[in-house]
Amino acid sequence: MSNPQQLRYSKEHEWLSAVEDGVATIGITAFAANSLGDVVFAQLPEVGDTVTAGETCGELESTKSVSDLYSPVTGEVTAANQDVVDDPSLVNSAPFEGGWLFKVRVADEPEDLLSADEYTEFSGN
Amino acid sequence: MSTAPSPAPRHTALDALHRSLGATMTDFAGWDMPLRYASERDEHNAVRTRAGLFDLSHMGEITVTGPRAADLLDYALVGNIGTIGPGRARYTMICREDGGILDDLIVYRLGASEYLVVANAGNAQTVLDALTGRAAGFDATVRDDRDAYALIAVQGPESPGILKSVTDADLDGLKYYAGLPGTVAGVPALIARTGYTGEDGFELFVAPEHAERLWQALTEAGAPAGLIPCGLSCRDTLRLEAGMPLYGHELTTALTPFDAGLGRVVKFEKEGDFVGREALLAAAGRAESAPPRKLVGLVAEGRRVPRAGFQVVAAGEVVGEVTSGAPSPTLGRPIAMAYVDAAHAAPGTQGVGVDIRGTHEPYEVVALPFYKRQK
């Protein structure tokens, strides 16, 4: 699965959509989902939480391990994907679409987010 | 991540094949092994409902031969090896003098005075050294056959039909925990009806140069029945659901077979002395009168997954430790095996939880196994 050109990426393997009306959608990349294996539990930040770029804001549990979820930007959470909470396998089957994790009203974003091509080179996938 | 240098991993005879199948590989006991090919949950479910194909060539084979081969094994292991009939197999253990478990093993009797001992990959050298040392004074030979075999397993309810289509061997006459030499897909093999999944299935010991041919033949023969290649990740969840112990988790040198609830493998009634006998007698008495922690099953009420090393808690006190844990595809909930203080070990005990990163998640105490196949 190639990394969509219209998204930006963090080195913690999250993707970030273009900001619309101040809000960006966040998920993990196909590479990250594949590395985790079958995701069985997602603990997502809650609406109203403040998340900080580069800091943990939840966790994703797979068959073999648990991984921290990092926010690629700073801001207030405006939505969490209940579909993923109900069916975490969406993260594996549609990481860039139905498997999105949460939305943030962006207050600040780091300068080192990667383009699709840069992330592809960074992750080797 | 550890940055300590480690020796280059070993590769099985099927390594190139795994890579061509797109397997995610993992280091396991010094071997580069398939962790999964695609979804480990799909692989797990294939073994429960259809069939799965495994490369288990990392397992350690040791051959013991000679007029007193059985006597040596009776002395070196805790089981009654002398009573294994030709063509039969037995689950047993090798212990230290102090009763601590060095490894759990399957011993196959291949001939009148020939036995194949199969050890866990991580313990194969330890078992080989122990058997060699314990062989002193016995007219028997201990041979390292780790490089002589590749091991391919086909497991699941469809496995008898699949295997029948590529062999003339009498599989109907082959009972659980039995093995016979035969030809599979034109390749000479030891065909054993054993496994580590809780399902019916077979383990095929073949020369490494024949492994790829056998794998391909089973892949083709099994495709119509839904057989898929399976990695070590689902092997772990399959054995966990079946309540089977894994060395390094439920079994360690700090535990005797009695501590692990597997005292039945120790046969005091056999003739002659055996390594660990005295310590194991004491351990048997202890388990009877004042049992230490007991191995139990835990089923989550929530969805967070317990992992090895997590603490079992009750009323704020630590009462045990998780040895293995995973999301169970069959139960649809996280499960674990754990050593728990006897007072909290009875199935149905209220108020038991697991400390998952600081949160006490409620768990139900259940008897093992979690899953038993319908025969």
From TrEMBL, chain A:
<keyword id="KW-0450">Lipoyl</keyword>
<dbReference type="InterPro" id="IPR003016">
    <property type="entry name" value="2-oxoA_DH_lipoyl-BS"/>
</dbReference>
<protein>
    <recommendedName>
        <fullName>Glycine cleavage system H protein</fullName>
    </recommendedName>
</protein>
<dbReference type="InterPro" id="IPR017453">
    <property type="entry name" value="GCV_H_sub"/>
</dbReference>
<dbReference type="GO" id="GO:0019464">
    <property type="term" value="P:glycine decarboxylation via glycine cleavage system"/>
</dbReference>
<dbReference type="GO" id="GO:0005960">
    <property type="term" value="C:glycine cleavage complex"/>
</dbReference>
<dbReference type="GO" id="GO:0009249">
    <property type="term" value="P:protein lipoylation"/>
</dbReference>
<comment type="function">
    <text>The glycine cleavage system catalyzes the degradation of glycine. The H protein shuttles the methylamine group of glycine from the P protein to the T protein.</text>
</comment>
<feature type="domain" description="Lipoyl-binding">
    <location>
        <begin position="23"/>
        <end position="105"/>
    </location>
</feature>
<dbReference type="InterPro" id="IPR033753">
    <property type="entry name" value="GCV_H/Fam206"/>
</dbReference>
<dbReference type="GO" id="GO:0005829">
    <property type="term" value="C:cytosol"/>
</dbReference>
<dbReference type="InterPro" id="IPR002930">
    <property type="entry name" value="GCV_H"/>
</dbReference>
<feature type="modified residue" description="N6-lipoyllysine">
    <location>
        <position position="64"/>
    </location>
</feature>
<dbReference type="InterPro" id="IPR011053">
    <property type="entry name" value="Single_hybrid_motif"/>
</dbReference>
<dbReference type="InterPro" id="IPR000089">
    <property type="entry name" value="Biotin_lipoyl"/>
</dbReference>
<comment type="subunit">
    <text>The glycine cleavage system is composed of four proteins: P, T, L and H.</text>
</comment>
<comment type="similarity">
    <text>Belongs to the GcvH family.</text>
</comment>
<dbReference type="Pfam" id="PF01597">
    <property type="entry name" value="GCV_H"/>
</dbReference>
Automatic annotation (TrEMBL), chain B:
<comment type="subunit">
    <text>The glycine cleavage system is composed of four proteins: P, T, L and H.</text>
</comment>
<feature type="domain" description="GCVT N-terminal">
    <location>
        <begin position="16"/>
        <end position="270"/>
    </location>
</feature>
<feature type="domain" description="Aminomethyltransferase C-terminal">
    <location>
        <begin position="293"/>
        <end position="372"/>
    </location>
</feature>
<comment type="function">
    <text>The glycine cleavage system catalyzes the degradation of glycine.</text>
</comment>
<dbReference type="GO" id="GO:0019464">
    <property type="term" value="P:glycine decarboxylation via glycine cleavage system"/>
</dbReference>
<dbReference type="GO" id="GO:0005829">
    <property type="term" value="C:cytosol"/>
</dbReference>
<dbReference type="Pfam" id="PF08669">
    <property type="entry name" value="GCV_T_C"/>
</dbReference>
<dbReference type="InterPro" id="IPR027266">
    <property type="entry name" value="TrmE/GcvT-like"/>
</dbReference>
<dbReference type="GO" id="GO:0004047">
    <property type="term" value="F:aminomethyltransferase activity"/>
</dbReference>
<dbReference type="InterPro" id="IPR006222">
    <property type="entry name" value="GCVT_N"/>
</dbReference>
<dbReference type="InterPro" id="IPR013977">
    <property type="entry name" value="GcvT_C"/>
</dbReference>
<dbReference type="InterPro" id="IPR028896">
    <property type="entry name" value="GcvT/YgfZ/DmdA"/>
</dbReference>
<dbReference type="InterPro" id="IPR022903">
    <property type="entry name" value="GcvT_bac"/>
</dbReference>
<protein>
    <recommendedName>
        <fullName>Aminomethyltransferase</fullName>
        <ecNumber>2.1.2.10</ecNumber>
    </recommendedName>
</protein>
<dbReference type="GO" id="GO:0005960">
    <property type="term" value="C:glycine cleavage complex"/>
</dbReference>
<dbReference type="GO" id="GO:0008483">
    <property type="term" value="F:transaminase activity"/>
</dbReference>
<keyword id="KW-0489">Methyltransferase</keyword>
<keyword id="KW-0032">Aminotransferase</keyword>
<dbReference type="GO" id="GO:0032259">
    <property type="term" value="P:methylation"/>
</dbReference>
<feature type="binding site">
    <location>
        <position position="203"/>
    </location>
    <ligand>
        <name>substrate</name>
    </ligand>
</feature>
<keyword id="KW-0808">Transferase</keyword>
<comment type="similarity">
    <text>Belongs to the GcvT family.</text>
</comment>
